[in-house]
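Colleagues,

For the teaching module next term, I've prepared a clean inverse folding example: a structure given as tokens, and then the sequence designed for it. I'd like students to try predicting residues themselves before seeing the answer, so please don't circulate the second half yet.
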């Protein structure tokens, strides 16, 4: 089979393609023919040796993929050959709280991921792909979509009419816009550039702020909310944008902190209004299944920026790293 592996982590040429034998499913496992996979920011961090969890040497990268079951091992129930599936980001996190042993088991980091023709996974780690989605669309769900879902559902419930602030046009931010509208929320979206602003409006964002025109955008958020501020923030902009996110919050608001990768510092005076900051770590299988039901019921479709062929994996990584994408970057089985 075709497979890419990460060699010499930290090098721009770490991604190496090779031919190897397909893996074989063991007890309780299934073999999946991967038809599409998507890139997340954590995949760049792993390649650059900046991720919190050390990668296994020569690991097959990427956590997110969608495909079909082609073989099941002994003891597998609930899965059949031909089933269309995606894999959970944390294969062992079924429900409840995330514990350290679960966090240390991740596709594309501590175990082989999706940038290959085939992957082996425990049956409990595989979730049916929504029937109305293609493989290219379904492969965007395990990390970005579930992170956005957990950011909006894992803390205080969103009441219809409340206001949600999203930051940027990456996968998590765009899914957050779509999910927030499903819950009846008003969305204020932050971005840069007219093209990205227009795309956010087509997804349902009620207000879009161009941070190039409004560098101190927290003031603009407050103006658009008549001084009240927002009730929920999906903070994908790193620690650098967190002070302004907090300044944009209403009293008793909640900030779901998806990433904290910047070099800025946070002044304690920014913590006004009894704001709750909650760290989000993707989500469990149970959360994934709840999200699956919502996506299926509303026939929600992920936003794909561009799909590359398998042989163009290096170009896909480069395109993602340039941060000009709007939506998900996909590597398809073409």
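(Answer key — instructors only)
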């Amino acid at each position: 089979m075709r497979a890419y592996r990460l060699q010499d982590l930290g090098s721009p040429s770490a991604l190496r393609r090779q031919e190897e034998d397909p893996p074989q499913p063991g007890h309780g496992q299934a073999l999946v023919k991967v038809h599409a996979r998507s890139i997340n920011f954590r995949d760049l961090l792993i390649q650059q040796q900046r991720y919190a969890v050390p990668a296994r040497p020569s690991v097959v990268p990427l956590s997110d993929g969608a495909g079909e079951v082609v073989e099941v091992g002994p003891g597998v129930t609930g899965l059949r050959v031909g089933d269309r599936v995606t894999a959970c980001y944390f294969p062992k996190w079924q429900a409840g709280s995330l514990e350290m042993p679960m966090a240390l088991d991740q596709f594309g980091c501590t175990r082989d991921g999706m940038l290959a023709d085939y992957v082996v996974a425990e049956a409990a780690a595989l979730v049916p792909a929504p029937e109305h989605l293609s493989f290219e669309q379904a492969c965007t769900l395990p990390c970005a979509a579930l992170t956005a879902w957990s950011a909006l559902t894992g803390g205080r419930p969103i009441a219809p009419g409340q206001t949600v602030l999203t930051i940027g046009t990456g996968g998590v931010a765009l899914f957050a816009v779509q999910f927030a509208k499903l819950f009846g929320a008003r969305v204020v979206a932050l971005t840069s550039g007219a093209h990205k602003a227009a795309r956010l409006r087509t997804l349902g964002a009620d207000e879009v702020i161009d941070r190039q025109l409004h560098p101190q955008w927290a003031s603009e958020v407050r103006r658009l909310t008549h001084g009240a501020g927002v009730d929920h923030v999906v903070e994908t902009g790193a620690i650098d944008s967190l002070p302004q996110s907090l300044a944009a919050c209403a009293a008793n608001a909640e900030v779901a902190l998806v990433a904290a990768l910047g070099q800025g510092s946070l002044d304690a005076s920014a913590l006004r209004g009894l704001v709750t900051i909650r760290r989000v770590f993707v989500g469990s299988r149970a959360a994934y299944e709840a999200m699956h039901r919502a996506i299926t019921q509303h026939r929600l479709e992920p936003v794909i920026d561009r799909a590359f062929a398998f042989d163009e994996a290096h170009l896909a990584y480069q395109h993602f790293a340039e941060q000009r994408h709007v939506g998900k970057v996909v590597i398809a089985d073409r």
